[in-house]
Amino acid sequence: MSTTTTNESRRKAPAGERVADWADGRLGIYGLAKANMRKIFPDHWSFMLGEVALYSFIIIILTGVYLTLFFHPSMNEVTYHGSYEPMQGIMMSEAYASTLEISFDVRGGLLIRQIHHWAALLFLAGMFVHMMRVFFTGAFRKPREINWLFGFLLFVLGMFTGFTGYSLPDDLLSGTGVRFTQGAILSMPVVGTYISMFLFGGEFPGTDFVARFYSIHILLLPGIMLGLLVAHLILVFFHKHTQFAGPGRTNKNVVGMPLLPIYMAKAGGFFFLVFGMIAAISAIAQINPIWAIGPYRADQVSTGAQPDWYMGFAEGLIRFMPGWEVNLWGHTLVLGVFIPLVLFGLLLVIFALYPFFEAWLTGDKREHHIADRPRNAPTRTAFGVAWVTMYLIMLVGGGNDLWATHFHLSINAITWFVRIFFIVGPLLAFIITKRICMGLQRRDRDKVLHGRETGIIKRLPHGEFVEIHEPLSQAKLHSLTAHDQYEPIEIGPTVDENGVERKIPLSQKLRAKLSKGYFGEGNQIPKPTAEEYREITSGHGHH
User: Fold this and answer.
1) Contact 308, 391 (CB under 8 A)
2) What would the 3-class secondary structure string for 493-531 be?
3) For the chain, how many structural domains are there in total?
4) DSSP E strands: which ranges in 394-464?
5) Which of 91, 118, 254, 340 has a 20 to 30 Å separation from 271 between CA atoms?
6) What pairing do the DSSP bridges indicate for beta strands 77-79 and 91-93?
7) Which 3 state secondary structure label does DSSP give 246?
8) Which residues contact 106 (CB under 8 A, 6 or more apart)?
9) Taking a C-beta distance cutoff of 8 angstroms, is the pair 348, 387 a contact?
10) Which domain holds residue 29?
């Protein structure tokens, strides 16, 4: 075909096709789209938890852009003359006054504020539950350890982004929280004073912290989070999504639906569903009514001052600690604040590095694309439930004054409950969860060997009554027996053939001990073997 004929046919093509041809000639997007737009994604309800977090983040960005158009991040004092009568003539910062203006004078401003705040809460809740799903199903294993770290960093940065965000209105509640944070910073030896002076531009509250928090909140942290989110999604796309065991599903394939058009259509509908639910909650449930609290003043403290739920863990650690202090070389070290800060960071680091610990413990270097059922990893599941239990107990500690006033309890009794159950609660949760997982494994083993109970009772010729069991389908048998079971690592003989004692590294001894605790006898129920299944289904003992 001649060049003239080709050009004429292009001119006759629809406008959209001509634009697509023009873009493909310069960006090469056709080949990229052809290779990736039919990528397969598995379908399971738990995979939607990450989507809830993603869509909430998009809503936060959209509403945040709208709010920045009207917010004045300044601590200059002004006299209020707006439309909210109870505040007439009161001195306040420009930040607080502009937040009142957004709430009462900007069209749709209060609704957008509430959508922004509720979306932030749902974003962190979605990430938390999504991370728990990843943890309990072992979806953090090779090759996804780095992606686990990306997700974990997103959660931690989201916590601090939320903190800087609800501090911006400069109301009495958020100001009390900022003062609490400044006290925690000051408890850090040597560097605490310098960090506080740098952050607040002088003695608290200074004149710059709202402007500095504003820059951190809308530029620095969201920029880092956006980069992490893009990297996270690219790795999800590159590594494939995990899937639960089932017929035809292996570590080398994905069974599900194509990205286009099915998955994208469902994802688009789900986005608007999430947006609609957040908008409905924001229209019905009031949150952060700063006009009822008043502007921040350094000589006042708001009663019932509570952070958002995701910061309750850190606040609970500080509230349950005794007020210990140590004087060293003329300096006072406030252990009652410093120890919880160290403990908070330590617990987060342990949770972040868990995938690497489990990889070291098992020595497994294979790629894993099949998700575990939580019951089939009882020790890991028990650790996860213990961590969540500790988190919830600290939430109680972070709101001990509200528990006391709402339920007419002694605040001292609540504090001692938190102190005791910070240790006892996770331990009980670990033991109970592990026993439940072991019981569920026994039930699965029984179902594989004996089939499903039908509820039909049959009387045998010699008078015995038995229940008829229905054999499981091959698909169900596969799902119940497809999981891996690791053997505990053995150190081997400590003395060689010449009677010379081997020098065994401490790390190897520790690894063997932990491996036995994870995978040794009494820590997992052996899967039924093919021989056991054939023997029992051949008629011997099977009804």
Assistant:
1) no
2) CCECCCCCECCCCHHHHHHHHHHHHHHCCCCCCCCCCHH
3) 2
4) 452-459
5) 254
6) antiparallel
7) coil
8) 70
9) no
10) 1-36
Collapsed DSSP state (helix, strand, coil) of residue 368: coil
> 266 with 316, same domain?
yes
419, two tokens: 């102190």
Coil vs helix vs strand at 171: strand
Q: How many CA atoms, within 13 angstroms, populate the side-chain half-sphere of residue 328?
A: 7
The pair of three-digit structure tokens given for residue 512, joined into one six-digit string: 């063997």
131, 3: one domain = no
**In angstroms, rounded to a whole number, what is the distance separating the alpha carbons of residues 485 and 376?**
8
- pTM score: 0.88
- Please report, for the domain that includes residue 76, its CATH number: 1.20.810.10
Among 300, 334, 368, identify where a domain stops: 334
Read off the pLDDT of residues 335-388 as tens digits, 9 standing for 90 and up: 888 888 889 999 999 999 999 999 999 988 899 999 999 999 999 999 999 999
**Statement to judge: residues 15 and 71 lie in one domain:** no
Per-residue tokens: 189? 């030896």
Residue at 33: amino acid letter = A
- Side-chain-facing half-sphere of 540: CA atoms under 13 Å: 7
Helix (H) or strand (E) holding 258: strand 257-258
Phi-psi region of 55 (alpha: psi -120 to 50; beta: other; left: phi over 0): alpha
Per-residue tokens: 138: 């072992």
Instruction: Measure the CA–CA gap between 138 and 98, rounded to whole angstroms.
Output: 47
Question: Does residue 21 belong to any structural domain of this protein?
Answer: yes
Query: Do residues 456 and 435 make contact, with C-beta atoms less than 8 angstroms apart?
Result: no
Residue 171: strand pairing partners:
295
- What tens digit of pLDDT does each residue of 135-194 get? 999 999 999 999 999 999 999 999 999 999 989 999 988 888 888 888 888 888 888 888
Chosen domain end from 319, 334, 349: 334
Across 154-175, b (16+ Cβ under 10 Å) vs e yields bbebbbebbbbbbbbbbbbbbb
Token reading at 111: 């609704």
**Structure-token match 């908008």, residue found:** 279
